Amino acid sequence: MTFLEPLMLIGLPLALLPIIIHLLNKLRHRSVKWAAMMFLLSSNKTATRQAKIRQWLILLMRSLAIAAIVFVVSRPIAGGWLGWAFQGAPDAIVVVLDRSLSMEAKLNGKTKRQTAIELVANSARAYQGKSHIVLIDSALRIPQELTDVGLLSRLSFASATDTSADIISTLESAIDWIQRNKPGSVEIWIASDFQKSNWAPDSERWKDIVPRLSAVVGNLRVRLLRIANPQPFDDVGIVVSEAIIKKSATAKVLEIEMQIERSSIEEKNLPINLLVDGEQQYFEIPCQGQSMRYRHRITLEKNLDSSWGKIEIPADANLRNNVGYFVYNPVPVLKAAVVCSNTIGSKFLALAVSPGDTNRSAELVLRERADSMNFADYALVIWQGLLPDNSAKLREYIEAGGVVIAFGSGGKSASLEGISLGNIEEADNEKPFKINNWYEKDGILARTEEGFSIPLNELFVYKRQPLSGGNAIAYFEDGSAFITRKIIGRGQLVVCATTAEPDWSSLRDGTVLVPLIQRLFNAGARRITQSDMLVCGENSLNNSMQIRAIEGNDYKINAGVYRVDGRLVAINHPPDEDIFEIVDETVARKLFSSVPVAYFEEKTAEGQGFQSEIWRTFLIAMVMFLIIESILVLPPKP
Predict the structure, then answer these.
(1) pLDDT in tens, 188-240
(2) Which residues contact 109 (CB under 8 A, 6 or more apart)?
(3) Rounded distance, CA 356 to CA 354, Å?
(4) Is cis: bond before 232, omega within 30 of 0?
């Protein structure tokens, strides 16, 4: 319980007035012992005892009535979320509203976002006019002062979005506002569904949040409102992660990769409605487990250079993650850089890049020129020979989504981004090194769609450099790593223990080299070919000259298809919004460490608020106390 007029509580000692008056009245009369009266009193002890009890009950009712009056004028409010006792209205209330896509799941006919807005608005009404109420939403993170909390549900910056929510960054915006305005006391209300991907409880950034919160104001409280998912919760989210055009001599084929997340593990078929080039197609996907990827191919009947489409699934708990968008545009010529000396092996590497594919080309770059080249122009960088002295540019390229594969290090021990290559080891001429174990469930060494393995076991290696660091995905018979990989940012670094030179290995035969290079090329090409497939809230279209919506409203917060400077761009919701993991109360409290936290969980959409003024309750109680007191003072019946 808290009070909007806490200064009125100084009147509580007035509740002692009836007792004080009673004691003073007793002091006015001096007791005189009289034999006849003493005899009468001793003969009626029971009646005297009852009279005293009645008198003390009368005093109690009068005191409670006065205390109830004091509570009435102090305007008490109570509720689970606002359960701190004897706290006054703060100078400022900063409301942090989670507007992520996961908040659009329906809870008894209302979305979780609508429920959160209603609860916040009902609670904030008690403070309107006494506290500055500021809203900071997770999508825009721009402080907006609320002059009328009743209009909160109608405001554009509280509407639905297809974005994720960076709760840490939103809190940082709240702290910045507090630092600029310097209120005396502050409460931060956080209304969210506590989805783990949005809260990032394992992030190191939380260690900076608590000291900043403690430093901005002396009197700070945090109130957490979690809007829980309805139970049972049945939701399926779908995202188009990739759309690739593949041309053959007779047809143009569109290959779509979909990422599907389900709240259920029940095995069943998922109906899909596909719209592309204005034509519809219906099919079903057999679903097992909660998470899966699925590739679908469709032959394009219309010979269009660019177009767009979408996939839809049946309506469920959250309508906003039931649609995925894709586009295809003219495919640019893709290049790979082969950094090496002018050797025979380098020519085999160049041939592996474009074995008959006119849309792919390889450029031979001498090691001496590598430091001045712009890696961003290439889908793949193949490095054979001495490794770079300074790998900063190469790391920047990988972090942005680039792919690099290094074949050896020129015969010298060296390291690249934590992966080390040792001194050369040579095999006996009659017994070359052989590979007998590799990871083929997925990734660059995965089996083909027909179920065939890459024939790594048929490869002969005559020279190798022992590898350490990274994650090994292929091994020699003696357990030494043949290929190791390291994820850096959005890209990857792959290092092979041998080279394509004839005196090092049989990679030149192509049965291993070509599929390996092609798969790495495909992975690196996504950075270029999929630049038209963006994630809502994370896109980089702000510098574009002209943006026109084809399907969708606002590219910053809504998924859809947009024409950007004449080129089609598809924006999908963040895939992490479909992963149904939450941060529980214990973890949430620990994130705020020593900062006072109140936690409330709303499991229905029927409540009117998580707090309310309860002065009427005390007013009724006062009337009841006075009625009881009036009954007690009546003379007993003879």
Answers:
(1) 999 999 999 999 999 999 988 888 887 876 688 899 999 887 667 789 999 99
(2) 605
(3) 6
(4) yes
> Residue 185's beta-bridge partner residues?
219
Closest listed residue to residue 173, CA positions, set 157, 160, 162:
157
- Cα separation, 458 vs 435, whole angstroms: 8
Q: Which of 627, 608, 620, 611 is nearest to 71 (CA)?
A: 620
How far CA 378 is from CA of 91, 166, 406, in Å, comes to: 56, 32, 15
**For 552-588, what is the HEC assignment?**
CCCCCCCCEEEEECCEEEEEECCHHHHCCCECCHHHH
pLDDT tens track for 443-498? 899 988 788 899 999 999 999 999 999 999 999 999 999 999 999 988 999 999 99
Tokens of 531: 């630049």
Can you give the three-state secondary structure of 75-106, one letter per residue?
Answer: CEEECCCCCCCCCCCCCEEEEEECCCHHHHCE
Q: Which of 449, 421, 443, 457 is nearest to 520 (CA)?
A: 443
CA of 538: how far to CAs of 140, 164, 556, in Å? 12, 9, 8
Residue 634, beta-bridge partner list: none
Residue 431: DSSP 8-state: B
Percentages helix, strand, coil for the chain (3-state, rounded to 5) are 30, 30, 35
262 and 290 Cβ atoms separated by less than 8 Å: yes
Tokens standing for residue 380: 């793949």
Q: Residue 164: how many CB atoms within 10 A of its CB?
A: 25
In this structure, how many other beta carbons lie within 10 angstroms of the beta carbon of residue 306? 14
Q: Which tops the pLDDT comparison, 125 or 530?
A: 125
